[in-house]
């Protein structure tokens, strides 16, 4: 390590030099080692640092958090009781916290009796945005939505008719008597009154299944919103790739979703796949008409046929 530079105290406390002769005298008096030190402001010098600075490097105080050392004296503020106070459950151990708050109510009726163990949160519930018919007609009258084109999720969000979509959009029938413009609208779900109001005005409504990633891609223009189903109900999601979209629109996979969009009463996009005489349910079959007897083999009675079918 190089030796430290010692400067006379008189030079450090001396005011700004007044003449060039004084500065010349100062430069002569300093040694070669002290030439590296800073001189009064009238003499220009470059900033230099000694090797001793390597032993004084440290991070900023806010660069990292220091561990709190508890029980190490009153000077730290966390000594003696370590910040826990005197006696009680909060000092002796942690206070357990459950879904409905503390596990006890001080002798009163527990919260679990009022609220129950289950039922507060449904992880399978859908967060669906709603739009009413009166607001839809108001947006059309103000020119925010073009009724000559199919109205999809993208048009509803961009026109600020709804503010954000998570799992889909549902059309409700508030102010259904105000609907007078025929439109083609495709949403996730729709009430029966809203469907009747749209069709009464000469419009057409269709319900389509959406997922969160699909809605995100629809807003970015990477996925078709499904408006091609108005002209071709049998169009497949892969047909949208030929129209320039990067991703196809997924279909429902759960039984409840499939049955909902197979129902013609909901104007589901899968209703054309249901055969004539069948219902939208995948589990329950359409009941057969009563009074229909089974055909018997010629020359044998019912008891004889039952006897032949027995295993023992």
TrEMBL record:
Keyword Ribonucleoprotein: yes
Region called Disordered, residue ranges: 63-106
GO biological process, one term: translation
Family annotation (Gene3D superfamilies): 3.100.10.10
Position of the signal peptide: none
Domain Large ribosomal subunit protein uL15/eL18: 130-205
Biased composition annotated in UniProt, kind: Basic residues: 81-97
Keywords: Ribonucleoprotein, Ribosomal protein
Family matches, as PANTHER family: 50S RIBOSOMAL PROTEIN L15, LARGE RIBOSOMAL SUBUNIT PROTEIN UL15M
Family listed: Belongs to the universal ribosomal protein uL15 family.
Protein name per UniProt: Large ribosomal subunit protein uL15/eL18 domain-containing protein
Species name: Aulographum hederae CBS 113979
